[in-house]
Amino acid sequence: MMKQKLRSLIIPLLISASANVGAEIVQATGFGDNFNEALHQSKLEALQQVVGTFMVGTREIKDDKVFEDILEYHGGYIRSYDVLEYNETTHSVTISADVEVLKDNTMHVKGDEFELDPDIIQDYEEKQVIIDKFDDPNQAFFTKIMDIKIRPGKHYYKYDLYGVITWQPKWVSDLETFLKHSTKDGKTKGQLDVKVSGVGGGNIFTTVASAVGDAIVNAPQEQSDNSMVCFASKKDKDVEFCKESVSGFSNMPVYSDMKIDILGFDKNDNQVHLINSHVGTNSLYNNVYKGEVKKYFLTKRTFNQPGVIIHKNGLQFFNQTVKIDKSIAEQITKIKIIISKNQ
Questions:
Q1: Regarding predicted confidence, which is higher, 202 or 36?
Q2: Same domain, 256 and 287
Q3: What's the CA gap between 195 and 142, in Å, rounded?
Q4: Residue 42, pLDDT score
Q5: β-bridge mates for residue 10, sequence order
Q6: Contacts of 155 (CB under 8 A, 6+ apart)
Q7: In which domain, by residue range, is 48 found?
Q8: Partners of 101 in the β-ladder
Q9: With contact defined as beta carbons under 8 Å apart, do 43 and 95 qualify?
Q10: What pLDDT is recorded for position 175?
Q11: What's this model's pTM, rounded to 2 decimal places?
Q12: Residue 90: enclosing H or E segment and its boundaries?
């Protein structure tokens, strides 16, 4: 059988979260090869009943063999449980579990001692594993070369590349889903900012203060150094919501222009040339610093945490001109653009 080339794909992400907040008592049954495995599965089933499960994974096919890597995150934890039944024939365990939803991972002070929640680090690490799966620019973006004009010369060829970069809709949707159901809200403050021409040439300046009181609007808001991700429909539109993103992205090019690699391939699909370049990204995203104020059409918003704003419907057009030595250019039959990871 002909060997298949390596193929990689993101398995559809699944989340079935309830909107419950607090604790809930549920019964769940799990199966396994022994008591401990069945007990573990019954706990997972209890979590899924109450808080849902978010799964992300990759599947690779190489040399006719399938390799899968599946990760799960549950938006809660089991405070306590009782084993109601153990069936030795089917190796099934039924439990009654007290499931806590959206737990508050805070540090409690007890006298002169600090009482720590032992699940804080584990919960953080589980979230970070999921975020790391999203931290791949070539999964997040779609690049397309729309036209190439070639200008031959005596010693080199000039290639004028015209193309567009967009977000992969599924990547954005999956990230939204995960952040909405597993992380805290980002700290922002919106304020109506409208100027209306009045009679006699005067101006009427309307703010939220006129409706809810100056004390509420101008009340200081807590700031944080935690990273967050915000979502907007496109550039210059106010954000729809912001959510914390654990420690943020390290590979995604969200704090500078996007680095791209322009690759040339010969007729045998061998790479014969590489050029590094940059593309502007204002239409796709922009980063914000803690305390930054952005003005939109009718509002202004204060961002009290650092983060990145994803413009979901953004289109970033690019025009790149590259020079390639004639001897190499004559070998090139295909050109591809990929997005470089941050170094």
A1: 36
A2: yes
A3: 40
A4: 86
A5: 58
A6: 325, 326
A7: 1-134
A8: 22, 76
A9: yes
A10: 86
A11: 0.65
A12: none
